[in-house]
C-alpha cells in the first residue's frame, strides 16, 4: 500500500467509534511488516459460504443407499418437510419453550463463523461479533443474554503471530459484545489450516420482545439500514494492497484514496451493531426483517418473501452501494454479482418491511440516535404477489457517509 | 483393511443402538472405494484443539502495543480477572438471567466443533452431537432446548462426495439430537480446507435443574462414566487401515480383530449420550461433574479441582481404558500421553464427585437403565487439599464391554 492510501485509511480510522485509534500495524507488535491476517485463508475471492442452492440441495437429499437394508426406526416426518430436512441455512433460530409456570419463553439464537476479511485483528473481532448479533437483532430482539466465541488459529501462523493476533481479535470481539450489553462466557477454539472467527448469540426473551419476520402487508416499504458493497470494497482494497494485475487494470479508474475511503466505510459499517435498528423496529411497528449477509440482498430478500403470511411480493428498485463500488463491480464484468443482488455482504444491515409513513420517522430517528453514518434507504415496496422478489431495473445510489 | 477386521467391525456395528445397520461403505454410495472421511483433515495425529496452556496464555495476554496511544475508554475489569481475560477454553457456559417476573432463569450452553475422526459420516454426525451435548449434561441439565449445527465442507471434496457425505452426517447429528429430545433448528456452514462438524447446545432452565460443579467434599469418590482411550483406538485403527510403518511395528502385538473391537467400542462409547448420567446425578446427589474431552482426564480433572468451594484435592488411582489401548499407548512410547492423563478423548464420559455409598447405587442403576455398556468406574477419591489433582501410580483397568 502506498503512503497515500495508508494516510487516508489512518485519517478515517482515527475517529472510529469516536475513539482515537491507530490502524493496525504489524510492526507495532514486532511482526513482519508484510503480515496480513487475511492471508490466513487462501480461498481468494470466492465466497467462503456454501451457496444457497447447494445448501438447499444438501438439505433435501434423501438418504439413498444402494442395497442398504435400512431398518432403523424411522420417526414420523413433520408434515410438508422432506424426511431429512434440516435447515442449517438459517443462521438464526427461534425456539419456543412452553412453560407452565411463567408463560412461553422464546430462545432466539444466531450463529456464524468464517475467515478474516480484514487485516486489523481488533476490528476483525468486532466485525465477527456484530455479524453474529445481526441475526438476533433482525428478529427485533434488543437484549442478547450470552455470547460464545468460535475461533481457529491457523497452522501457518508462527507462535509469535498467534500470541499477538489472537488476543487482539478476542479483545475486539469482547469489546463489541460489551457494547451490545452482553458478556462472552465461553466458546471453542481449534487449530485449522485457515484462521476462523465467529460466535453464537443467544437471547432468552418473551414473545413481545420478538418481531416476527412474516407480517408484511401491501403498501409497506422496504428499508435497508446499511449500504451494500462491503465485499467489493474489501476485495478491491486487497487487490490494491497486493498491487497485482487486477489493480493495474482498475487503477486507471479508481484512485487509492477512493479505495481507502470505500474500505474504511465498509469497515465502519460492518462494525456497527444493528441494535438501535432493532429498538426502533419496535417503536415504528416493523412488519418483519432479515439480516443481509452471505447470500446477498436478493438471496435474503427471497427468504424474507418466502416466509410471509400474506400474499405479497417484494419489489426492489434502489441499490444503495458504498461510493463507486457499483462501478468497480461493473468494471469487473459483475463477477461479484452485485447488480444481480447476489454479492455477499459481511455484517450487513437489516432489510425491513414497514409502513411507509413510519419509515420516514424511523430513518430520521436512526440518524438522531446514531449519527449521519446510520442512514437508511427506502429501496422498494411490498405489493400483492406470490411471495417472490421483483428485482429488475435497480437504480444505484452511491453512498458517501 | 483385510476382510478379517472388516468382518469384525461389521459384526459389531450391526447391533449398534440395537439397530441393524451396515457400516458405511463408500461403494454403496457410488463413491471411490478408497474414500475416507478422515482424510479431509490432514493434521495427522496431533490434537486439533489448542493446548490448554496455549489457551490460558492467550487469554491472559495483555494487549501491549508498541508506542500506541490507547485512549479507548477502558471498562472496569472484573475482580481477579486479567484485564482482557476471556475464557473461551470453557466449552460450556452457564449464564443467569435475573428476571423480576418468574425468578432467575439459567441459560446453559455447550459448543464444540472439530474434524472428522471416523470415516462413517452417519456415526460421525452422531458423535459430534453427543459431544456438544456432553457439556450441558455435565451440569446436570437433562433437557436441552435447542441445537445449532456447525459445518464446513472441504474444498478437496468433489461435488459428488459433498452431496453424498454431508446429508448423511447431518442426518446422524439430527438423529442423535432427536434421541436427546431436541431439534436442530439452525446453524451455519462454510467452505473450508478441512471438513468441520460441530454444534451448539442450549438449555433454558431453572436453577434446580443444574448441578453446580463445585460442591465436592472430602470422602466423595470420583466416578468416570466412559472408558478412556478413544483417541488411541481411533489412531490405531487409522494406522491399520493405512497399513503403514506404524502398523507394521504394532501388528506383532495386536491383532486386527483386537483393533476392530477397540475401534468399535470407541465409536459406541462416543455416540452414547451422557443424558441418563445427568438424570442419575440428580437422583444420587452428585457434588459436581465435568465432561472429559480434548484436555484428557487429568486436564479436565484439574479444571474441576480448581473450581471447588471446599479445600479439597482429587486423587485419581484407576484408569479404565478400552481393552489393550493402554498397552498400545505404552508401546508408542506414550506419545499419546495417555498414562500421563493428557491424551485427548472424544465425546468422553463425565467425571463425577459423589458420596461413596450413593456411587455404588448410581453405577448399578446406570447399567439397569442403559445396559452393560453403561459401566462406570470409581477411579479415585476426594480428600482435603489445595484444589489440585493427585495423579500418580494409576492402575490400568482394561475395559471389555
Describe this structure in words.
The structure is a homodimer of 401-residue chains. Chain A is of the alpha+beta class and 401 residues long. Among the domains of chain A are: 52-88, no CATH class; 221-399, Alpha-Beta Complex (Phosphoribosyl-aminoimidazole Synthetase, Chain A, domain 2). In chain A, 34% of the residues lie in helices and 22% in strands. Chain A has eleven helices and eleven strands. Chain A has a six-stranded mixed beta sheet with strand order 7-9-6-10-8-11, with helices on both faces. A five-stranded mixed beta sheet of chain A has the order 1-2-5-3-4, with helices on one face. In chain A, strand 3, helix 4 and strand 4 form a beta-alpha-beta unit. In chain A, helix 8 packs antiparallel against helix 11 (356-370). Chain A is globular and about 55 Å long. The model of chain A is unreliable at 1-16 and 62-86 (pLDDT under 50). The interface between A and B is large, with 89 and 88 residues.
Amino acid at each position: 500500500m502506498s503512503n497515500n492510501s495508508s494516510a487516508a485509511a489512518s485519517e478515517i480510522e482515527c475517529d472510529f467509534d469516536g475513539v482515537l485509534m491507530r490502524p493496525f500495524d504489524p510492526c507495532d507488535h514486532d511482526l513482519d511488516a508484510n503480515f496480513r491476517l487475511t492471508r490466513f485463508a487462501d480461498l481468494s475471492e470466492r465466497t467462503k459460504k456454501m451457496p444457497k442452492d447447494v445448501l438447499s440441495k444438501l438439505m433435501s437429499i434423501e438418504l439413498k443407499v444402494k442395497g442398504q437394508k435400512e431398518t432403523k426406526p424411522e420417526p414420523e416426518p413433520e408434515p410438508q418437510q422432506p424426511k431429512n430436512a434440516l435447515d442449517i441455512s438459517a443462521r438464526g433460530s427461534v425456539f419456543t419453550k412452553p412453560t407452565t409456570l411463567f408463560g412461553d419463553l422464546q430462545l432466539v439464537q444466531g450463529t456464524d463463523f468464517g475467515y478474516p476479511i480484514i487485516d486489523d485483528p481488533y476490528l476483525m473481532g468486532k466485525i465477527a461479533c456484530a455479524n453474529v448479533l445481526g441475526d438476533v437483532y433482525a428478529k427485533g430482539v434488543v437484549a442478547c443474554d450470552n455470547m460464545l466465541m468460535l475461533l481457529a488459529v491457523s497452522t501457518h501462523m508462527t507462535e509469535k503471530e498467534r500470541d499477538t493476533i489472537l488476543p487482539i481479535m478476542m479483545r475486539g470481539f469482547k469489546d463489541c459484545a460489551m457494547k451490545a450489553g452482553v458478556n462472552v462466557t465461553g466458546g471453542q477454539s481449534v487449530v485449522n489450516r485457515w484462521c476462523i472467527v465467529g460466535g453464537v448469540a443467544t437471547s432468552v426473551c418473551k414473545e413481545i420482545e420478538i418481531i416476527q419476520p412474516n407480517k408484511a402487508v401491501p403498501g409497506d416499504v422496504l428499508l435497508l439500514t446499511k449500504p451494500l458493497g462491503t465485499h467489493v470494497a474489501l476485495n478491491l482494497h486487497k487487490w490494491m494492497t497486493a498491487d497485482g494485475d487486477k489493480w493495474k487494470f482498475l487503477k486507471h479508474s479508481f484512485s487509492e484514496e477512493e479505495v481507502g475511503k470505500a474500505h474504511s466505510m465498509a469497515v465502519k459499517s460492518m462494525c456497527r451493531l444493528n441494535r438501535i435498528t432493532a429498538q426502533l423496529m419496535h417503536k415504528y411497528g416493523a412488519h418483519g426483517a432479515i439480516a443481509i449477509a452471505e447470500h446477498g440482498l436478493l438471496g435474503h430478500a427471497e427468504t424474507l418473501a418466502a416466509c410471509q403470511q400474506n400474499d405479497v411480493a417484494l419489489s426492489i428498485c434502489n441499490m444503495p452501494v458504498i461510493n463507486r463500488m457499483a462501478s468497480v463491480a461493473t468494471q469487473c464484468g459483475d463477477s461479484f454479482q452485485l447488480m444481480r443482488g447476489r454479492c455477499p455482504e459481511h455484517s450487513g444491515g437489516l432489510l425491513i418491511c414497514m409502513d411507509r409513513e413510519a419509515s420516514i420517522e424511523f430513518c430520521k430517528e436512526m440518524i438522531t440516535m446514531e449519527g449521519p453514518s446510520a442512514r437508511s434507504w427506502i429501496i422498494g415496496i411490498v405489493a400483492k404477489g406470490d411471495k417472490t422478489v421483483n428485482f429488475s431495473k435497480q437504480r444505484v445510489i452511491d453512498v458517501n457517509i
